[in-house]
């Protein structure tokens, strides 16, 4: 993977010396967070061949078997307040659609807020985590991305088999995790260039790729389930929903299921 990554990485990529590769690690996000606290510079990336404790949103685990996917975390240190990074997950998701398209020739969709999907299957996910300075500004932001590449259906644990997918499954060809990792780093680099100045354009790109908009959804928060229609994604990356009682609200927490996907009928 590493050899292929370096061979595909553009000579213009500015942070080549800051790529750290681990054959096996607990979680690239957790490791990069520890490095960030020790002062690792903007542009540091951790990539693993295998994660034993990969995790995602809502405390869920992210299945990260050896050689099957790209497990990558990227560190940025933007000089801003945390409220200026509300769109970070959306910006990263749109960047990952570009990366997958560039490396594999297929553009995934985004299921709000952080799932990369194709058809009814989840191809990967994004977990962003912020660390704050004592003054309350952003000290670091970590963008963790996992993308399933080489799996066939039987390679996924039974409990996610009907909803998970890989790039090999949806393209019908063999995809190269190293090439994809290079495209991901380049897309993150481009995203970083306009992260604070190009927010509207990034959210517009996110909306164009977001398959949740226009769908019937259910919102699960604790034991409470509400149904409605997803109308849009607002300037902060929140999902604007018209609920069945007629109220329109911007949702930025809880779990949103789309009717017809991941077992919601
Ligand atoms: C999700 O599906 O909710 C997000 C999954 C994010 C997984 C990636 S894999 C690389 C990085 N390390 C982690 O532990 N998580 C992210």
Q: Which outline best applies? A: globular
Number of helices: 6
Rg, alpha carbons: 18 Å
Round the mean pLDDT to the nearest integer and report it: 96
**Number of beta-strand segments:** 12
Strand content: 25-35%
Global structural class: alpha+beta
Q: Helicity level, as a percent range? A: 25-40%
Largest sheet: 7 strands, mixed
How many structural domains in the coordinates? Answer: 2
State the order of secondary-structure elements, H for helix, E for strand.
HEHEEHEEEEHHHEEEEE
Strand order of the largest sheet: 1-2-3-7-6-5-4
Under the CATH scheme, which class of the largest domain?
Alpha Beta
For the record, the CATH architecture of the largest domain stands as 2-Layer Sandwich
Query: Which small-molecule ligands are present, each listed once?
Result: biotin
- Uncertain segments: none
Distance between the termini: 39 Å
At the fold tier of CATH, the topology name of the largest domain is BirA Bifunctional Protein, domain 2
Query: For the record, what is the CATH homologous superfamily label of the largest domain?
Result: Bira Bifunctional Protein, Domain 2
SSE topology sketch:
Layout: H1 2-8, E1 19-22, H2 28-37, E2 45-48, E3 69-76, H3 88-104, E4 109-111, E5 115-118, E6 121-132, E7 138-148, H4 167-171, H5 177-193, H6 199-209, E8 216-221, E9 224-233, E10 239-243, E11 248-251, E12 255-258
Parallel strand pairs: 1-2
Antiparallel strand pairs: 2-3, 3-7, 4-5, 5-6, 6-7, 8-9, 8-12, 9-10, 10-11
The structure holds biotin (BTN).
Keywords:
5-stranded antiparallel β-sheet, 2 domains, 265 residues, 25% helix, 7-stranded mixed β-sheet, alpha+beta, BirA Bifunctional Protein, domain 2, 12 strands, binds biotin
């Amino acid at each position: 993977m590493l050899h292929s990554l370096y061979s595909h990485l553009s000579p213009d990529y500015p942070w080549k010396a800051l790529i750290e590769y681990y054959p096996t690690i607990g979680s690239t996000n957790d490791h990069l967070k520890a490095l960030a606290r020790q002062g690792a510079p903007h542009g540091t990336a951790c990539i693993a061949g295998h994660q034993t404790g990969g995790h995602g949103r809502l405390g869920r685990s992210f299945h990260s078997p050896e050689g099957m996917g790209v497990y990558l975390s990227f560190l940025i240190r933007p000089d801003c307040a945390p409220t200026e990074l509300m769109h970070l997950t959306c910006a990263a998701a749109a960047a990952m659609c570009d990366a997958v398209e560039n490396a594999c020739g297929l553009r995934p969709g985004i299921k709000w807020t952080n799932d990369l999907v194709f058809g009814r299957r989840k191809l990967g996910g994004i977990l962003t985590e912020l660390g704050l300075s004592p003054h309350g500004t952003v000290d670091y932001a970590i963008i963790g991305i996992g993308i399933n590449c080489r799996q066939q259906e039987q390679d996924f644990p039974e409990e996610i088999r009907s909803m998970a997918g890989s790039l090999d499954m949806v393209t019908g060809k063999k995809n190269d995790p190293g090439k994809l990792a290079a495209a991901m780093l380049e897309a993150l680099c481009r995203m970083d260039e306009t992260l604070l100045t190009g927010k509207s354009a990034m959210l517009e790109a996110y909306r164009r790729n977001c398959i949740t908009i226009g769908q019937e959804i259910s919102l699960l928060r604790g034991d409470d389930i509400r149904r409605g229609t997803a109308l849009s994604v607002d300037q902060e990356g929140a999902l604007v929903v018209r609920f069945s009682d007629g109220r329109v609200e911007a949702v930025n927490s809880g779990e949103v299921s789309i009717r017809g996907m991941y077992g919601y009928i």
